[in-house]
Amino acid sequence: MTVDAVCLDLDDTLVTYERSVGEVLALAFERAGVDPCFAASDYRAAYGDYADDADTVNELRRACFADLAADAGHGPETGRAVADAFAETRDQTRVECLPGARDLLDVLDVPLALVTNGAPEMQRQKLRGAGLTGAFDVVVFAGYDAPSKPDPEPFRRALAGLDATPENAVHVGDSVSSDVAGAHAAGLRSVWIHGDADRTPDPEPHRAFSDLHGVRAWLQST
Question: Which residue in 143, 183, 141, 151 sits closest to 166, CA to CA?
Fold first, then answer.
């Protein structure tokens, strides 16, 4: 196929936090003086349910943590206190590029779009911390500029900004449920970055690589 445009996810595709969500959550419980009552995996699983209704990531986290705490038998104010401590502890600029990310962005000579689920102020800090500000021709903050992935709208907005068609575009991401499914819904070809070679993804991506080095080699060969 001819690739005329490339869309990419941000979190755990191009960059990762220096400190994991679990590490920051543990510090937030300690800072708030609250015994741990939910896990980082609970937060990740629930995140998307709040993304379309919150104006900021702090607002999202306060609503999410309030419900998670309530589900664990605590008052919602407990969850909001943990969310505030999480915000005070998390430094969004403390991220690092994943292996192959800079090489991939440097060698691609087609229009690039970032399509990321996340609040604009949070994601811009990550881009700045990773030194990727200005690396993209178009940036779509799904959940804010458009519905969250896997809705096709953020992909459509990205392609409109790039003046590209889905038939000749690919999307690269680590999430089967949001990146692969969303790309398919919008008519793009999907490239999945997987951490588990034995996993059977559903839906099945068009291409799968263990890291971004493989993506770069494939795109350079197209």
Answer: 183
